[in-house]
């Protein structure tokens, strides 16, 4: 075998919590919409090139859910 | 994020950028010659004064001998500047040596000689007190200037808080706002706009004046007239009254714009009208570095994230509003709280945590400014932590390689990626490597070469 397959994608470096969040997001998706190509290790992921924007949005959503705003 | 920085470029840089023809016209005015001389780097000043009374030109070689060897960079900078401003005209002798030589611009030289030997007289004299009555004191004048300037800034950032209306046309305002506000239906302050607000008054003034001058041609005013008038204005005495009838029509209409900016105060007497230059105007030709008189700060930050600003200014409350929640607005006190939500709003607009922290530190109330740190550490740390919280995930376009058929090729590939500083991640057990997208091409070529 003379493989050397190369895959294009987006490399994500983050902390363990964030990585788990992204993996969780991936698990929620239908099989055709999964975006993680490979979980490299606990802090590094490799995802499809066009998933970056979606991930960012999802992270900021979860941040908003997790913060309390005093009603004014 | 666009990397537009607002550099409050020097007045003289703008003068130097004028076409040669216009510069020659500028030098007809002795005041401008002096203003230009003042703005030069020290070495250049020396050259000009040394050559002032000598006719004819001086060779570049001789000029170079005037400085010690280690001053050669300064020498070159000075010469460049002088040539750029067309104070020096360069000529190359046609002889076989082809030596460069410089001579002073004759108009500039003649005017400066006159100015030094006889002293200059302004085209207008201060009006006698008998005509004007009591004039505002220097303090009153400064207060007026700052008020005007603040009112202008409030208009600039489009807040509905300004009480007075400016006489600037909406189109003129749009010119000023270009680059400071986002160009959308609901204009918001951009990153550079925030930087602008945090700049010192003098630096802000430069920015606005520069826009004003570069836009002058569209209004049918010659930029040369405008520059020479502004420079001339900087030679007037602060707090003295000057009669309006000594001005041309263009100057008079310019003056009403300048009054809006707080550079001059216009007053009307029984028969005459006059203008009184404020400190803002007389500081115009002083270079930025020299005029850094720090305003006294008025902000106290407590460890509970409360911010107290002892100020009646609406502008200050607008600035605070950019990154905190303003809770009370008392006659001389603004109480605000730094909250996560407000900070996130600021970060989204491109304002950085460091900018906010340095703003709080620079404007610390004298009482707390003596303490170190002037802003409680837990607050500054938290501001920075919140910012890093936004950047917990780092993404970069990349290529993943696996299925290497031998360890040698894998290691060679890793080394190559490291050499191009494009290695993002490697796993030597499973022989996988992730590299930046930029070096994908090089990697592919390399691996193809290995395969053969």
TrEMBL record, chain A:
Report if keyword GTP-binding is assigned: no
Q: Report the superkingdom from the record.
A: Eukaryota
Keyword Metal-binding: yes or no? no
Organism, per UniProt? Linum trigynum
Subunit text: Component of the 7-subunit TFIIH core complex.
Q: Where are the transmembrane segments?
A: none
Q: Which compartments is it annotated to reside in?
A: Nucleus
Q: Name one Pfam family in it.
A: Tfb5
The entry's function note states: In NER, TFIIH acts by opening DNA around the lesion to allow the excision of the damaged oligonucleotide and its replacement by a new DNA fragment. In transcription, TFIIH has an essential role in transcription initiation. When the pre-initiation complex (PIC) has been established, TFIIH is required for promoter opening and promoter escape.
The family assignment reads: Belongs to the TFB5 family.
Gene Ontology cellular-component annotations: transcription factor TFIIH core complex; transcription factor TFIIH holo complex
One of its GO biological process terms is: transcription initiation at RNA polymerase II promoter
The molecule here is called General transcription and DNA repair factor IIH subunit TFB5
UniProt entry keywords in alphabetical sequence: DNA damage, DNA repair, Nucleus, Transcription, Transcription regulation
Automatic annotation (TrEMBL), chain B:
Q: Can you name one GO molecular function term for this protein?
A: double-stranded DNA binding
A Gene Ontology biological process in which this protein takes part is:
nucleotide-excision repair
Any one of the GO CC terms: transcription factor TFIIH holo complex
Q: Which UniProt keywords apply?
A: DNA damage, DNA repair, Nucleus, Transcription, Transcription regulation
Give the Pfam families listed for this entry. Tfb2, Tfb2_C
From what superkingdom does this record's organism come?
Eukaryota
Q: Where is the Transcription factor Tfb2 C-terminal domain?
A: 381-448
Q: What InterPro entries does its record include?
A: Tfb2_C, TFIIH_p52/Tfb2
Localization per record = Nucleus
Q: Which family does it belong to?
A: Belongs to the TFB2 family.
**Main function:** Component of the general transcription and DNA repair factor IIH (TFIIH) core complex which is involved in general and transcription-coupled nucleotide excision repair (NER) of damaged DNA.
Task: Cite the PANTHER family for this sequence.
Answer: GENERAL TRANSCRIPTION FACTOR IIH SUBUNIT 4, TFIIH, POLYPEPTIDE 4
- Note the NCBIfam families from the entry: tfb2 (TIGR00625)
Name of this protein? RNA polymerase II transcription factor B subunit 2
What lineage, starting at the top, does this entry show? Eukaryota, Viridiplantae, Streptophyta, Embryophyta, Tracheophyta
């Amino acid at each position: 075998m003379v493989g050397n397959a190369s895959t294009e994608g987006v490399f994500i470096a983050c902390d363990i919590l964030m990585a788990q969040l992204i993996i969780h997001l991936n698990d929620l998706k239908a099989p055709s919409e999964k975006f993680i190509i490979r979980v490299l290790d606990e802090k590094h992921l490799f995802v499809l090139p066009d998933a970056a924007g979606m991930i960012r949005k999802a992270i900021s959503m979860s941040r908003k859910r997790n913060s309390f705003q005093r009603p004014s | 994020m666009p990397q537009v920085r607002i550099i409050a470029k020097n007045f003289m840089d703008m003068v130097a950028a004028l076409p040669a023809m216009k510069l020659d016209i500028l030098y007809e005015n002795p005041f401008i010659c002096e203003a230009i001389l003042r703005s030069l780097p020290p070495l250049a000043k020396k050259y000009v004064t040394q050559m002032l009374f000598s006719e004819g030109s001086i060779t570049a070689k001789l000029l170079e001998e005037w400085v010690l060897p280690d001053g050669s960079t300064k020498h070159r900078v000075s010469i460049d500047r002088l040539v750029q401003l067309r104070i020096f005209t360069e000529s190359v002798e046609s002889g076989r040596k082809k030596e460069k030589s410089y001579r002073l611009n004759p108009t500039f030289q003649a005017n400066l000689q006159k100015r030094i030997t006889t002293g200059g007289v302004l085209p207008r004299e201060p009006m006698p007190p008998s005509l004007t009555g009591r004039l505002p004191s220097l303090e009153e004048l400064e207060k007026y200037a700052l008020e005007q300037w603040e009112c202008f800034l409030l208009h600039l950032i489009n807040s509905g808080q300004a009480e007075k209306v400016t006489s600037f046309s909406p189109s003129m305002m749009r010119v000023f706002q270009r680059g400071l506000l986002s160009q959308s239906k609901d204009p918001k302050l951009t990153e550079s706009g925030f930087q602008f607000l945090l700049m010192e008054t003098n630096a802000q003034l430069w920015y606005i004046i520069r826009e004003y001058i570069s836009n002058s041609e569209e209004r049918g005013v010659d930029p040369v007239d405008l520059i020479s008038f502004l420079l001339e204005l900087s030679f007037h005495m602060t707090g003295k009254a000057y009669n309006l009838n000594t001005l041309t029509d263009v100057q008079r209409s310019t003056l009403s714009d300048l009054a809006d900016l707080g550079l001059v105060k216009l007053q009307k007497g029984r028969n005459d009208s006059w203008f009184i230059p404020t400190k803002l105007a007389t500081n115009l030709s002083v270079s930025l570095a020299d005029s850094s008189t720090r305003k006294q700060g008025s902000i106290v930050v407590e460890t509970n994230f409360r911010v107290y600003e002892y100020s009646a200014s609406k502008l200050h409350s607008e600035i605070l509003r950019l990154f905190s929640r303003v809770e009370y607005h008392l006659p001389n006190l603004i109480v605000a709280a730094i909250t996560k939500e407000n900070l996130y709003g600021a970060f989204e607009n491109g304002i950085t945590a460091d900018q906010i922290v340095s703003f709080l530190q620079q404007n610390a109330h004298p009482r707390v400014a003596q303490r170190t740190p002037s802003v409680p550490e837990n607050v500054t740390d938290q501001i920075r932590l919140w910012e890093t919280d936004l950047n917990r995930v780092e993404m970069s376009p990349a290529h993943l390689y696996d299925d290497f058929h031998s360890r040698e090729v894998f290691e060679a590939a890793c080394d190559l990626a490291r050499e191009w500083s494009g290695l993002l991640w490697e796993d030597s057990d499973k022989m996988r490597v992730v590299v930046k997208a930029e070096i994908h091409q090089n990697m592919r070529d390399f691996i193809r070469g290995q395969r053969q």
